[in-house]
Design brief:
By secondary structure, the chain is an alpha/beta fold. It has two domains: 4-223, Spore Coat Polysaccharide Biosynthesis Protein SpsA, Chain A (Alpha-Beta Complex); 230-388, 2-C-methyl-D-erythritol 2,4-cyclodiphosphate synthase (60s Ribosomal Protein L30, Chain: A, 2-Layer Sandwich). The protein has helices at 33-42, 59-66, 81-90, 112-121, 166-176, 185-191, 211-223, 270-283, 288-291, 305-317, 340-351, 369-372, and strands at residues 4-10, 27-28, 31-32, 49-54, 75-76, 99-104, 127-133, 138-142, 145-150, 156-165, 196-200, 230-244, 248-251, 254-257, 261-262, 321-330, 358-363, 376-388. A seven-stranded mixed β-sheet has the order 5-4-1-6-10-7-11, sandwiched between helices. A five-stranded mixed β-sheet has the order 15-12-18-16-17, with helices on both faces. The chain has a two-stranded antiparallel sheet with strand order 2-3. Helix 11 links the parallel strand 16 and strand 17. Helix 3 crosses helix 5 (166-176), helix 5 packs across helix 6 and helix 8 (270-283) packs parallel to helix 10. The two termini are 32 Å apart.
């Protein structure tokens, strides 16, 4: 029997983020918002079971977002949020937990300390929620004019997770079913007379609702200033391939006609090789040759997308994300600048990055050295990633 369970509410379809995909499935730093949220709970030592309540119209999106995570079978949501939570609670009745946390799927930056604090508070009270005190002066207004100023000293902004003793919150939700809509589970608990404690939350535990919220979340990732302790790392890579017989070269996943080809055990994609090494370097995971030895025949003529995707996968395995990549391609010919947009798009597809996080430049060595003599192509790359410390 699970002692502590978590329900992630992910059934909403409406989106103020101006996209066709529900916000919980949008990419944030190459990882879906829902996956980041789920990982916060599946990776917490105090949580024994995690289930998501979803809209089954989004089942394919859900399966893709949560692939490989240790989650219970998803639960079909209801018409309103409180209906979805009640259905999630009902799904746990076969093996009821002692405590249950309810969390918004669109709050991907909840930290382990907050989860721990909410769970601990339930030893003393029937309910507890993460919340932050209001620090701004609060005004009540009507028709665009101030009516009066509120005393902010006792005001808090409610967040999730909201935790409860399971049997009591289930009974409260059953009693509230069919009644007026309540905006959070603390309100359901209050209506049933349950005592709910306030646990200090975090300003970074934002709920992504609008496009501006999404931009703010991206800024948090870029600076590494999430509530969880996150550190930025930078890795560099360099690669060279000589010209050989052929009629094209493949650079950053794009086939470019040329009077020569590039020699290499795989497809000799010098740009992807340098970038793969940069990501591996930032991770402290050696180089591409250690992961894909050229002595192994199975990598002969292999698509270098395999190598780059592997490096990106290692970042995700460590719950990190790639912030930015920069590639410089060095050769006299062929002309690479006309293919820059296609290269950026291909790298973006593999890494799950938007184009503004990918820099690809082409230069020459003014006919000096082996690239200047037209003997081959060189590439250097830099990758900036963020990893939990």
């Amino acid at each position: 029997m699970p002692k502590n369970a978590a329900i992630i509410v992910a059934a909403g379809r409406g989106s103020r983020t101006d996209g066709e995909v529900p916000k919980q499935y949008l990419s944030l730093g190459g990882i879906s918002i829902l996956r980041r949220t789920a990982q916060a709970f599946t990776g917490h030592p105090g949580i024994d079971a995690v289930a998501a309540v979803i809209n089954f119209d989004d089942r394919d999106l859900y399966e893709k977002a949560t692939a490989g995570l240790d989650l219970s079978s998803p639960v079909a949501g209801g018409e309103r949020r409180q209906d979805s939570v009640r259905l999630g609670l009902e799904s746990l009745t076969a093996t009821p937990p002692d405590k249950v946390l309810v969390h918004d799927a669109a709050r991907p930056f909840v930290d382990a300390d907050t989860i721990t604090a909410v769970l601990a508070a339930l030893d003393e009270t029937a309910g507890a929620i993460a919340a932050v005190p209001v620090t701004d002066t609060m005004k009540r207004g009507s028709d665009g004019h101030i009516e009066n100023t509120l005393d902010r000293s006792s005001l808090w902004r409610a967040q999730t997770p909201q935790g409860f003793r399971f049997a009591e919150i289930l009974e409260a939700h059953r009693a509230a079913a069919g009644g007026p809509e309540l905006t959070d589970d603390a309100a359901v608990a209050e209506q049933s007379g349950l005592d709910v404690a306030l646990v200090p939350g975090s300003e970074n535990n934002l709920k992504i609702t609008t496009q501006e919220d999404l931009h703010r979340a991206e800024r948090i990732l870029m600076t590494g200033s999430t509530a969880a302790n996150t550190g930025l790392r930078v890795g560099s890579g360099f690669d060279v391939h000589r010209f050989a017989e052929g009629d094209h070269v493949t650079i950053c996943g794009v086939t470019i006609p040329h009077d020569k080809g590039l020699a290499g055990h795989s497809d000799a994609d010098v740009g992807m090789h340098a970038l793969t090494d940069a990501i591996l370097g930032a991770l402290g995971e050696g180089d591409i040759g250690q992961h894909f030895p050229p002595s192994d025949a199975k990598w002969k003529d292999a698509d270098s997308e395999i190598f780059l995707a592997h490096a990106a996968g290692l970042v995700k395995e460590r719950q990190g994300h790639i912030n930015h990549v920069d590639i410089t391609l060095i050769c006299e010919a062929p002309k690479l600048t006309p293919h820059r947009k296609a290269m950026i798009a291909r790298i973006g597809d593999i890494l799950g990055l938007s184009g503004d996080r990918i820099s690809i430049k082409a230069t020459t060595t003014e006919r000096l050295g082996f690239t200047g003599r037209g003997e081959g192509i060189a590439a250097q790359a830099t990758a900036t990633i963020a990893l939990p410390c």
